[in-house]
């Protein structure tokens, strides 16, 4: 089947969110949503998520799934808000428990923070399948950027999160806790083993030098031939040397500290204090 795919690009975080619809029917899934967050003021806003809500409601769609490709470090998830407005089950990779364990310690969350993935409705593993109406989706575990990264193969489309970018931009960084360039290489090979005509939808685009417009759709065949980091049969040794050297030069994402605290909770804010106030922590010299 060929799903209908509607992309929503957030220029503040360079994130692409997707509504994926069965071709004959009204069921859909939402992948990698964005909750707007102003770092300077600490204020959230649902403008980006409301574009998705408006689209889904006007098209008369039923949301079966709200999926996360991984625990994002560059934007907050709007999954709880979308679930409140539209319904659907929130799903993520089962290795979320590793991410929760790591960052539960970084943020000194204590024993009240559950590290079993129970904040999500479904924990997905390699080989699992799910349905969007009559449209089948299959789960690939594609770690390397983070331990919990998944690729969702839905019909002839693969939603790869941060694992791959557009061919002229390359691949994801691997220097977050639990990341590994060698594992990323293996994960990418798994994606590239899909049929060449498989459509690939990336999680971000940063408009590579020389390109005028943002883009987010490519194919397996194009990635094999043209990806500047992994294409044309680059070896694992070459890739890891390049990726590790490049990662050593990269700054941390601007929203990494609020994003991780919220996203490891399935998009929920930390518990409020006795006065109803919510606070995010800034650990010093921890990341």
Rounded mean pLDDT is 97
Second rung of CATH, namely the architecture? 4-Layer Sandwich
Report the C-alpha radius of gyration, rounded: 18 Å
Overall geometric form: globular
Beta content comes to 15-25%
- Please identify which CATH superfamily we are dealing with: Ribonuclease Z/Hydroxyacylglutathione hydrolase-like
Helix content: 10-25%
- End-to-end span in angstroms? 43 Å
Q: Look at the helices and sheets and give the structural class.
A: alpha/beta
CATH topology: Metallo-beta-lactamase, Chain A
Number of helices, counting only DSSP H or I runs of 4 residues or more: 7
User: Biggest sheet: strands, sense, closure?
Assistant: 6 strands, mixed
CATH class call: Alpha Beta
Number of domains as seen in the coordinates: 1
Order of helices and strands: EEEEEHEHEHEEEEEHEEHHH
Strand order of the largest sheet: 1-2-3-6-7-8
Structure, described:
Helices cover 25% and strands 22% of the residues. The protein has 287 residues and is α/β, with parallel strands linked by helices. The protein has a single domain, classed as Ribonuclease Z/Hydroxyacylglutathione hydrolase-like (Metallo-beta-lactamase, Chain A), CATH 3.60.15.10. The strands form three sheets. The protein has a six-stranded mixed sheet with strand order 1-2-3-6-7-8, covered by helices on one side. Strands 9-10-11-12-13-14 form a six-stranded mixed sheet. It has a two-stranded antiparallel ribbon with strand order 4-5. A hairpin with a 4-residue loop joins β1 (4-10) and β2 (15-21). α1 (47-59) packs parallel to α2 (79-86) and α4 crosses α6 (236-247). The protein is globular. The N and C termini lie far apart (43 Å).
